[in-house]
Design goal:
The chain is mostly helical and 116 residues long. It contains five helices and no strands. The protein is 66% helix and 0% strand.
Length: 116
């Protein structure tokens, strides 16, 4: 495994962990988490965080659609971040989700199967 592969793997895992922790923990002492407030958006963010890992799949898997799935996941996280996290950017939850979204976008852009 090359250094670039290790970096991409770490970025994909960090993206998943940071997004899920950001929406699951009450970091700002609000008395609730995003899962309790808007569980549909929390589920969407979790699904997109998992989906962004598709860019790690080898080109032979899924008939080469791995990068496309990863790009959809990263794009979905950008949408989630823009609609829900940007208005509350000063919170700790938004900070973790911002880091996770940045990791997802970087990991997908560093993919050797990139189509852009």
């Amino acid at each position: 495994m090359s250094t670039a592969d290790v970096v991409r793997l770490v970025l994909h895992i960090a993206a998943l962990l940071l997004v899920v922790l950001g929406i699951s923990l009450d970091l700002d002492n609000r008395g609730s988490v995003l899962w309790g407030d808007t569980w549909t958006w929390a589920g969407f963010a979790t699904l997109m965080a998992v989906l962004q890992g598709g860019a790690m799949l080898p080109r032979t898997a899924l008939s080469g659609a791995g990068w496309t799935l990863g790009a959809i996941g990263a794009g979905g996280l950008l949408l989630f971040w823009t609609l829900l996290m940007l208005p509350m950017i000063s919170t700790n939850m938004a900070f973790l989700v911002t880091l996770g979204t940045a990791c997802a976008v970087a990991a997908v852009l560093l993919s050797p199967d990139r189509k852009v």
